[in-house]
Structure formats: structure tokens, C-alpha cells
Write a structure and sequence with these properties.
The chain has 249 residues and is α/β, with parallel strands linked by helices. The protein is built from eight helices and twelve strands. The strands form two sheets. The chain has a seven-stranded mixed sheet with strand order 4-3-2-5-6-12-11, with helices on both faces. It has a five-stranded mixed sheet with strand order 1-10-9-8-7. The protein is globular, with a radius of gyration of 18 Å.
Length: 249
Amino acid sequence: MSSRKNKDNNEWFKEWFNSPYYHLLYKDRNHREAEDFIKNLFALLSPKKEAKILDIACGKGRHALQINKLGYTVDAFDLSQNSIKTAQSFENETLHFYVNDIRTPLKLNHYDYSFNLFTSFGYFFEEEDNYKAIQAIADSIIPGGTFVMDFMNTEKVLKELIPLERKIIDNITFNITRKVDNGFIVKNIEFVDKGQAYQYEEKVKALSLSNFKDYFNAAKLKLTTTFGDYNLSDFDIESSDRLIMIVKK
């Protein structure tokens, strides 16, 4: 029996990110890397201790937890109810998690700093939704506030795209194929568990720096700095792993 979970679904992320298989496939994401990145960012930005922080599309909260450990008050949200349910077990007086859509501001003109990290953007089929999301982020921070966007370096990803990959995790074999289709980097994920066949698809728009500049300009945000990795090295379109953008309102 086959279960084609999110095939041809323009909002594939709603189901896939809420699936236990998503968390199984990506369970080995590097928490030390996240910790080092946050420390490097906060050394650069030097927020005041009373600064209000927002983590956008936070998943299970690994970045929000690191920011909170540095002594900051953090709100964080994600569309995935299951991710937020897990993250809420770590809540305290200065750390709170919410279910929310990136296209809707969690709070208006409230945050000194907002973060969207680890390529948690570019999922929408309609370009209008990308503009809405950046506008919502702009609306959530105070005048003079800072927004940090961490995206893949699309140029390098396209150049080094791995068309076929197989991962075996907890006795489940994930067969993963990648392609470029209609401006999106598409990852197809197929596997069988307990006799049930599953298929999921991830689609991330192949966004460039110029695309982001258009979004920022429309939201009256100003791009001030770009970095190319979690050590905050200079961005190089040919060799950098990441596109990290520091933006001011």
C-alpha cells in the first residue's frame, strides 16, 4: 500500500515538518554547530541583556535554547505543532514557543532582534508569500531593530547537487533524489516503514542574494552585511556554504 503524502502539494511543509519521519531523517543535525553560530552572531551583534529576541521557524528550538542560555528573553515560533510541543518542554520565564505562520507577525513592533536560521525560508510556491513573510518579519521588529537571515548559498548548492542519496536510520532506508524544477531545488524522499510506503517532497526556492535584496527593499529593510559561513567569514558566491545576511529596519 502506498501513501503519497505531499506530492504536488504547494504547502508540502505543513505535513512533512509535522511528521515524525522528518525528525528521524534529520535527527543528527549538529547542535554544537548551532551553539557556535549563535555565540559568533551574538559576539558580533552585542545585544543588550534586556533585548527581546525572536526566533522565526524555530523547529524544535535548538537556536532559541542557545540564545536563552546566553541570558536573553526569547520568543520562538514554528508552523509545526509537533515541533512546538517538543520545544515547549524547555520553556521557562524567559523562553516561550508558539505555533505561528511566518507570514503573520507574532507581535508587532516588539523585538530588538529577529532570526530566521538554517534555510527556514523559500518554501512557498507563490512569490507573493515570500514578500509577505519578510514584511511580517519587518513588522515584528522595532524601528532600528536587526534581522538575521541564514540561507543556503544557492549558487554552490546548485553546482554541487547530489542527485541520488540513500540513508539508513533506525532500520528505515530513505531513498532521496534531488533535482531543479521550475526554480525550486526539489528533494524527493521515499521509504517503507512497517510495510507502508511513504513519499514526501521538499521544495526550496533557489533564491539568490538579489532576490533577498528585493524582499528587503519592499519591506523597507536595509541589508548591511553578508557572511558565508557560521564562523562569519566573508561571503563568496563561488565557495561559501551559507548566505548569512544582517538587515536593519
